[in-house]
Write a structure and sequence with these properties.
The protein is mainly beta. The chain has 2 helices and 47 strands.
Length: about 425
């Protein structure tokens, strides 16, 4: 008597899922020209967008959902110069990784906009909500043009930079170096000397920004019209691990501006300038509890012109509650033209202008050599702040009015 075997539909689906694998193609760029019969970078991207070979570009493997572009060894230490074409920036609509030819070295391949180009254009634009990963590359000279975002890279999704440099790009609006609608992640990378006409001189992200062993330096946002985040502007969290933000400038948050939590570990924020508040950085909460945490980190030599928080400004709006924790960290040599040369922390309900409580804890830390032209040379804590110092040194700070060391308004101070 014949027998038949019937699989449970869920089990059958699992077997299919385990038996299959995601397809991915690898294309090798063989020419540093922007057009021609060999495989150029532009043509390799066009092939991936189309899911089919283009001109001189033939894929190893089937086109899939996360393809990779690599470069022939002959292109080591070369420059790809993008020229005036119908769509001068390189448009990407599929998830893509572009990997330069020298592992761990961004100077192994440079991608630049032609200095002689008659029209401004950025280098890469990701038109779909897909991730872009750039490895071992230098991107330079992009110009987004009037009213546009993302001088080097404009992305509708996440952007990841690994062992890469993004420098000397500009955007008339936001994101001089990189503008992403998702998250931006840097590892062993540099974003430097970029500029934006509004916010995010170096990086602007609608999501979060994470830096690991990376540097964001000498970028500039708008200095007169309220632009935020000279180095980094994020609507989400900002996280630094063994990283540096230095020499950046903007109207608010010279080094960085975050609308979420801020976490610095073994990191430095130094030499940044804000025309308004937060010379080193600004953290702004709009709803609920948010945290600013520094561990083994330094905020030094930053300046806030015409406002509060030379080193760091933390502001909670609409009933949000700031929690600030410093562990084994230093806030030194910062200057504010108003209050809080080193730190300024406040929480209030902007609708009713009623103060809300903020909490500040300094453990085994140092606040020294900071200056405020008004109150709180080392720190200014207002609107129901609760401040706790545990094994912490406050020394050599100065203020023209009240609180050369610390000024605590309205509430609670404890030195343990």
């Amino acid at each position: 008597m014949p027998h038949s075997l019937r699989l449970n539909p869920l089990y059958a689906a699992l077997l299919i899922a385990l038996g299959g694998s995601a397809q991915a193609a690898t294309l090798t760029v063989t020419s540093n020209l922007d057009d021609g019969t060999d495989c150029t970078l532009r043509e390799a991207v066009e092939a991936i967008n189309a899911g089919a070979n283009q001109n001189g570009c033939s894929a190893a493997g089937a086109y899939g959902t996360n393809d990779t572009i690599v470069f022939a060894p002959a292109l080591i230490n070369s420059t790809i110069t993008l020229t005036d074409q119908a769509d001068s920036d390189i448009e990407i609509n599929k998830a893509l990784t572009i990997t330069g030819p020298v592992a761990g070295d961004p100077t192994g391949l440079t991608i630049e906009r032609s200095a002689g180009a008659s029209n401004p254009f950025r280098l890469f634009e990701v038109t779909a909500d897909v991730p872009l990963t750039l490895e071992n590359l230098t991107l330079t000279g992009g110009d987004a043009g009037s009213g546009n975002d993302g001088g080097g890279v404009l992305a509708s999704g996440d952007v990841t930079l690994t062992n890469s440099t993004v420098s000397n790009n500009s955007a008339d609006n936001i994101g001089g170096g990189v503008r992403a609608s998702g998250d931006v992640t840097l590892t062993n990378s540099i974003v430097s000397n970029n500029s934006a006409g509004a916010r995010g001189g170096g990086i602007d992200a609608s999501g979060s920004v994470m830096l690991t062993n990376s540097t964001v330096s000498d970028n500039t946002g708008d200095l007169v019209g309220g632009g935020s985040g000279g180095g980094v502007n994020a609507l989400g969290d900002v996280t630094l691990n063994s990283s540096t933000i230095s020499g950046n400038a903007a109207s608010d948050g010279g080094g960085f501006y975050a609308r979420g939590n801020v976490t610095l570990t073994n990191s430095t924020v130094t030499g940044n300038m804000a025309v308004g508040r937060g010379g080193g950085g600004s953290s702004v909460g709009l709803d609920g509890m948010f945290n600013v945490t520094l561990t083994n980190s330094t905020i030094s030599g930053n300046t806030a012109n015409d406002s509060n928080g030379g080193g760091l400004a933390v502001l909670g709006f609409d009933g949000s509650t700031p929690y600030v924790h410093l562990y084994n960290s230093t806030v030194s040599g910062n200057t504010a033209d108003e209050n809080g040369g080193g730190l300024s922390v406040a929480g209030f309900n902007s609708g009713a202008f009623e103060p809300t409580t903020s909490f500040v804890y300094l453990y085994n830390s140092t606040v020294s050599g900071n200056t405020a032209d008004e109150n709180g040379g080392g720190g200014f804590f207002q609107d129901s702040s609760r401040v706790y110092l545990i094994n912490t040194t406050v020394s050599g700070n100065s203020a023209s009015e009240v609180g050369g060391g610390l000024a605590v308004v309205n509430e609670y101070f404890d030195n343990l």
